[in-house]
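To: structure desk
From: M.T.
Subject: fold request, one chain
Message: Could you run this one when you get a chance? Sequence is below, nothing fancy, just the single chain.
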Amino acid sequence: MRGALYDVAGWTIYLPEVAICSLFIIVFAWLNSKGAALSGQFQFFAVAFMIVAVVVIVVSMMIYYAAERPELAPAFPVDVPPAAAVATIIAFAPWAYVWFDSIPQLAGEFNFSPKKALGLLLWGIVAATLIYVAMMLATSIAVGTNHSDFEGEV
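Reply: Done. C-alpha cells follow.
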C-alpha cells in the first residue's frame, strides 16, 4: 500500500497495483498475439490449476468441518422468504456466465462443428456451476456464522 495514485468509489488505487495489472495485461496480450495454440495451452493449464486448487480448498474445508463441526449460517437469510432468495440468485446467474458468448466465436477459429461447440458450451456451464457451488460450500464452512467479522473485507 505504497504510492497512492487516486481514489475510485472510496478505494485508493496504488502504484504497485497498477503496475501488476499492467504487467498481466501485457503478458496476456503477448500470449494472444502468438496465436490460438499457445493461448489455448496456457488456458488449459490455468484451468487445470484452478480445478486442483478448488479441490484442495473444498477437501480441506470438509476435513475441517468433520473435525471441528463449526456452526454454519442458515441456508437462507432469516429476514427474506426462501423463494425470494432463490429468485435473487436466479436473476443474478446469467451475469455469472457472461463469457459463454465467446464459444461460438472460438468455434469458428478452431473449426469446431456446431455439435462440438454445443457440447463445449454445455460442459462449460456444468463445470462452472460445479466450481461455483464448491466454492460456496467451502466459503460457508470457512466463515460459518461469523460472517459479520468479514463485512467490509475485500
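Reply (cont.): Helices lie at 15-33, 36-68, 82-96, 102-109, 114-143. Let me know if you need anything else for the meeting.
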